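Project outcomes to date are best conveyed with an example. Our students and postdoctoral researchers have been running inverse folding experiments weekly, and each run begins with a structure described purely in tokens. The record below, which covers 93 residues, was selected by the lab manager from last quarter's runs and is presented without edits.
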């Protein structure tokens, strides 16, 4: 008797029957969603991104002029193409 989530791994059921303690399958969580432990938000908020980045920069003691670093900006554009950093606004920090 195999469940649908175990059909992808035929040896899983045999291992369970022989006494192996295996972690539950991904779809056996609270509500069956893989990412159920992340906070769900409706829309991307550019202001929140800038607040998080400014706190990170303060904690790391990195000056804002290093935000111009091309790889760092590429990472932001990968996360959210419309994201812009408020470099001049936060420069007083």
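After processing, the design step wrote out the following sequence:
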């Amino acid at each position: 008797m195999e469940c649908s989530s175990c059909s992808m791994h035929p040896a899983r059921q045999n291992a369970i029957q022989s006494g192996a303690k295996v972690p539950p399958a991904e779809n056996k969580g609270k509500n069956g969603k893989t990412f159920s432990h992340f906070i769900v938000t409706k829309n991307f908020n550019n202001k929140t991104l800038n607040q998080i980045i400014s706190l990170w920069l303060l904690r790391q003691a990195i000056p804002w002029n290093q935000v111009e670093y091309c790889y760092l900006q590429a990472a932001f554009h990968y996360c959210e193409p419309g994201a812009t950093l408020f470099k001049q606004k936060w420069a007083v920090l």
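The chain has three helices and no strands. The helical segments are 10-17, 46-60, 70-79. The training component of this project remains on track.
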